[in-house]
Write a structure and sequence with these properties.
By secondary structure, the protein is an alpha/beta fold. The chain is 38% helix and 20% strand. It has a five-stranded parallel beta sheet, sandwiched between helices.
Length: 162
Amino acid sequence: MKLSVAYYSLEGNIRYVAQKLADALGADLLELVPVKEYPDKGFKKYFWGGKAATMKEKPDLKPYSFTPDDYEVIVLCTPVWAGTFTPPFRTFLNENDMTGKKIAVVASSSGGNTVKCIQQLKEAAHAESLVAELSLIDPKDKPTKENEDKIKDFVNIILGIN
C-alpha cells in the first residue's frame, strides 16, 4: 500500500507528527511551503494567519511533486487556524483532485476543538472516505503519553491493525 503524508506546519507541532507518521507508515512525506511565509510570532501571527484562514485565501506554494493517483491513502496534517484548516491546504486541495481518494486527517491545536477543522478538510478534499482522524494538542511543544498513544492508534488504523 503506497501512502503519502502531506503537511503544513508553522510552529513545528504538525511537522513533528507528520515525520513520525511517515516513518511509522513508510509513507512519502510532502511539506507544503507557501512562497510567502506567515509570521510565526506575536500579534502578526494571529492576525495574518486568522485572516487568511477566515477569508479562505489560497497562497502560492513553492513547487512540489505530488500525484494523488499514486497513493492508496493520503494523510493530511494541519494545525487549526481560526477553527479551520490552513490556507496552504486550501491551495493544495485546489491544485490536486482528491475525489474518490481515501484520506486520513490530523489536526493539531493549542487546546481548541478540532472537529470542525477535520470535517471541513474532509469536505474540501472531496474524498471517498475518511479512514482515520487524529486530534492532538501541541504534540511537540507539550508531549504526553496520551498524544503518543493516539499517534500509535492512528497508524494502526491506517495499516489495518486493530
